[in-house]
Write a structure and sequence with these properties.
It is built from three helices and two strands. By secondary structure, it is of the alpha+beta class.
Length: 93
Protein backbone atom coordinates (compact mmCIF):
# COMPACT_ATOMS: atom_id res chain seq x y z
CA UNK A 1 0.00 0.00 0.00
CA UNK A 2 1.30 3.42 -0.78
CA UNK A 3 0.60 7.11 -0.34
CA UNK A 4 -0.03 6.82 3.39
CA UNK A 5 -2.73 4.15 3.02
CA UNK A 6 -2.66 1.90 6.09
CA UNK A 7 -3.73 -1.70 6.29
CA UNK A 8 -6.44 -2.42 8.80
CA UNK A 9 -4.50 -5.49 9.99
CA UNK A 10 -0.82 -6.33 10.20
CA UNK A 11 1.04 -8.18 7.49
CA UNK A 12 1.08 -11.24 9.79
CA UNK A 13 -2.73 -11.29 10.02
CA UNK A 14 -3.19 -10.76 6.28
CA UNK A 15 -0.69 -13.51 5.54
CA UNK A 16 -2.41 -15.96 7.93
CA UNK A 17 -5.82 -15.17 6.40
CA UNK A 18 -4.58 -15.49 2.82
CA UNK A 19 -2.81 -18.76 3.62
CA UNK A 20 -5.85 -20.35 5.26
CA UNK A 21 -8.12 -19.22 2.44
CA UNK A 22 -5.71 -20.58 -0.20
CA UNK A 23 -5.38 -23.92 1.61
CA UNK A 24 -9.17 -24.27 1.71
CA UNK A 25 -9.32 -23.54 -2.02
CA UNK A 26 -6.58 -26.08 -2.76
CA UNK A 27 -8.66 -28.68 -0.90
CA UNK A 28 -11.77 -27.71 -2.89
CA UNK A 29 -13.57 -26.28 0.14
CA UNK A 30 -15.58 -23.10 -0.35
CA UNK A 31 -14.38 -20.15 1.77
CA UNK A 32 -17.06 -17.77 3.07
CA UNK A 33 -15.09 -15.54 5.43
CA UNK A 34 -13.85 -12.08 4.62
CA UNK A 35 -10.85 -10.93 6.59
CA UNK A 36 -12.96 -8.95 9.09
CA UNK A 37 -15.24 -11.90 9.92
CA UNK A 38 -12.23 -14.24 10.10
CA UNK A 39 -10.35 -11.98 12.54
CA UNK A 40 -13.49 -11.57 14.63
CA UNK A 41 -14.09 -15.34 14.65
CA UNK A 42 -10.56 -16.06 15.92
CA UNK A 43 -10.71 -13.20 18.43
CA UNK A 44 -8.32 -13.57 21.37
CA UNK A 45 -7.41 -17.10 20.21
CA UNK A 46 -5.55 -15.88 17.12
CA UNK A 47 -2.12 -16.61 18.59
CA UNK A 48 -3.22 -20.11 19.65
CA UNK A 49 -3.74 -21.20 16.02
CA UNK A 50 -1.38 -23.72 14.47
CA UNK A 51 -0.67 -27.21 13.24
CA UNK A 52 0.72 -28.86 16.37
CA UNK A 53 -1.55 -31.26 18.22
CA UNK A 54 -2.60 -28.83 20.97
CA UNK A 55 -2.86 -25.76 18.74
CA UNK A 56 -6.31 -24.51 17.76
CA UNK A 57 -7.74 -25.07 14.30
CA UNK A 58 -10.88 -24.05 12.46
CA UNK A 59 -12.90 -27.26 12.09
CA UNK A 60 -16.07 -27.80 10.07
CA UNK A 61 -19.11 -29.50 11.57
CA UNK A 62 -19.16 -33.05 10.27
CA UNK A 63 -16.07 -32.20 8.21
CA UNK A 64 -18.48 -31.07 5.49
CA UNK A 65 -19.59 -27.89 3.80
CA UNK A 66 -17.95 -24.51 3.49
CA UNK A 67 -15.77 -22.59 5.86
CA UNK A 68 -18.55 -20.29 7.01
CA UNK A 69 -19.09 -18.68 10.43
CA UNK A 70 -22.15 -20.90 11.01
CA UNK A 71 -20.32 -24.11 10.04
CA UNK A 72 -17.04 -23.94 11.95
CA UNK A 73 -15.84 -24.34 15.50
CA UNK A 74 -12.50 -24.18 17.31
CA UNK A 75 -10.81 -27.31 18.57
CA UNK A 76 -7.29 -28.62 18.90
CA UNK A 77 -5.59 -30.12 15.88
CA UNK A 78 -5.59 -33.45 17.72
CA UNK A 79 -9.36 -33.32 18.34
CA UNK A 80 -9.98 -32.39 14.71
CA UNK A 81 -7.86 -35.28 13.47
CA UNK A 82 -9.68 -37.72 15.77
CA UNK A 83 -13.07 -36.43 14.60
CA UNK A 84 -12.08 -36.79 10.93
CA UNK A 85 -10.96 -40.36 11.56
CA UNK A 86 -14.26 -41.24 13.31
CA UNK A 87 -16.22 -39.78 10.40
CA UNK A 88 -14.15 -41.65 7.80
CA UNK A 89 -14.45 -44.97 9.64
CA UNK A 90 -18.18 -44.58 10.14
CA UNK A 91 -18.64 -44.03 6.39
CA UNK A 92 -16.78 -47.27 5.65
CA UNK A 93 -19.28 -49.34 7.61
Amino acid sequence: MSNGTKRKYSYRVHHAYDTQKAQAGARGIHWQFDIDSWVEWWGDDFDLRGRRSLDLVMARHGDEGAYHPDNVYKCTARENHQTKNRIRYSKLK
